[in-house]
Amino acid sequence: MARSETSAKIPDSAMLQVTISKIPAEGLDVDEVVNGEVLGIDPGELSTEKDGRFKARVEKADGGSLHMRGHLNLKTSGPCARCLADTPLVMDQELDLFFLPESEALSEYDDEEGAELQDRDLVVTFYKGDSLDLGGMVREQILLAQPMKRLCRQDCKGVCPTCGADRNLTACGCPKEAPAKTPFSSLALPGSAGHAPSKNAR
């Protein structure tokens, strides 16, 4: 008779906190709803859908290390950097990380080797005591996936600084702003908008 493969399930009430000593030999399956409220993400900073999903398997490895393979699916959104329109970003990301005990890492690695671990922090992280905080890890991955400059589209025209109209939707008719004067304005190339005419010009 074929051997069936089973693994323990995290109770819904436990959320994304794993007690390491209770991880069975066959590993622990995680299947949880994730969103900004669960993960403690400021809605003013980033909006998320309510029914995102995080599925993973956590297994014990050598030397107290833990190996986690999983998948994160979550729709996030935030304001466009130019026009402030709500701009979505769908995360559909495979995760493969190792967790090392922090106490052993601090005692076993010197500064040079420790620096190497920090360089690989997207695949290696640390845990304290008997608790593995998967929620903190998921939150970090979500924030790292956000663009430095979120744009609704690459050619976004932004908002008019005079009347506040969205230039992607309407032509407001406000005059274009004159180039701001700086200490280097006099160095502008002849014929450019910022070049001041010579006093000796006739």
Walkthrough of the structure:
With 202 residues, this protein is an alpha+beta fold. The protein has helices at 36-39, 102-108, 111-119, 134-145; strands spanning 8-9, 17-19, 28-34, 47-48, 52-60, 66-79, 86-101, 124-127, 131-133. Strands 1, 3, 4, 5, 6, 7 and 8 form a 7-stranded mixed β-sheet that branches. Strands 2-9 form a two-stranded antiparallel ribbon. A hairpin with a 6-residue loop joins strand 6 (66-79) and strand 7. The longest helix is centred in the C-terminal third of the chain and has 12 residues, at 134-145. The protein is elongated and about 70 Å long. It starts with 7 loop residues before the first strand and ends in a 57-residue tail after the last helix.
